[in-house]
């Protein structure tokens, strides 16, 4: 596993780097995972320390966590605790996912745009595009899409439904539940 730990406005010492690396190794060994890479960004924002983890497990599965604390060790440990909770919740599905989806994992290319919401002279017909990039839309079941969205800590996930091949959307609702948009079933 490739491990990268960087600090923004903060010097990451060997002690914190070794502490984080050993904790990640414990978690990976505990859940019998073979991650491709792990990146950790520790940022100092005033008096707060913000830690962001991104653990790439392959086959489109990224586990992302975020934590804030007054101390770097406390912040890293809180993010690792959240990471472990997510892995514990989806342990069986993640390990089964690797075995049964090796050949079937399919992605469709699409164009992704980032629009400038702060532009004062925005017209309804032509919003200001500030970034344009390619993105992949995975083919998943609804349960797998919810798992991917939850693990990646995203508010929504667009996917091709494996049962009928149409675009679907799962999203986190304001009440804490998961919403699912399936235009195929609305006939």
UniProtKB/TrEMBL annotation:
This is Ribosome hibernation promoting factor. Keywords: Coiled coil, Cytoplasm, Translation regulation. The gene is hpf. It is found in: Cytoplasm. Required for dimerization of active 70S ribosomes into 100S ribosomes in stationary phase; 100S ribosomes are translationally inactive and sometimes present during exponential growth. The lineage of its organism: Bacteria, Pseudomonadati, Pseudomonadota, Alphaproteobacteria, Holosporales. Residues 73-100 form a coiled coil. Associates exclusively with 100S ribosomes, which are dimers of 70S ribosomes. Residues 126-179 form the Sigma 54 modulation/S30EA ribosomal protein C-terminal domain. The keyword Cytoplasm applies. It comes from the Bacteria. Belongs to the HPF/YfiA ribosome-associated protein family. Long HPF subfamily. It holds the Pfam family Ribosomal_S30AE.
């Amino acid at each position: 596993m490739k491990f990268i730990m960087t600090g923004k406005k903060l010097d990451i010492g060997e002690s914190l780097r070794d502490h984080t690396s050993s904790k990640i190794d414990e978690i990976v060994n505990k859940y019998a995972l073979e991650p491709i890479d792990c990146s950790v960004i520790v940022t100092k924002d005033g008096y707060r320390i913000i830690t962001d983890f991104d653990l790439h497990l392959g086959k489109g599965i990224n586990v992302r966590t975020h934590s804030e604390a007054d101390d770097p060790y406390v912040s890293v440990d809180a993010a690792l605790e959240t990471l472990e909770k997510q892995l514990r919740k989806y342990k069986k599905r993640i390990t089964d996912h690797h075995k049964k989806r090796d050949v079937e994992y399919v992605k469709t290319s699409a164009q992704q745009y980032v629009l400038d919401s702060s532009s004062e002279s925005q017209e309804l017909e032509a919003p200001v595009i500030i970034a344009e990039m390619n993105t992949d839309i995975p083919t998943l079941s609804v349960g797998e899409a919810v798992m991917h969205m939850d693990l990646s800590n995203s508010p929504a996930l667009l996917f091709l439904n494996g049962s009928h091949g149409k675009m679907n959307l799962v999203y986190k609702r304001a009440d804490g539940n998961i919403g699912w948009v399936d235009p195929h079933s609305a006939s």
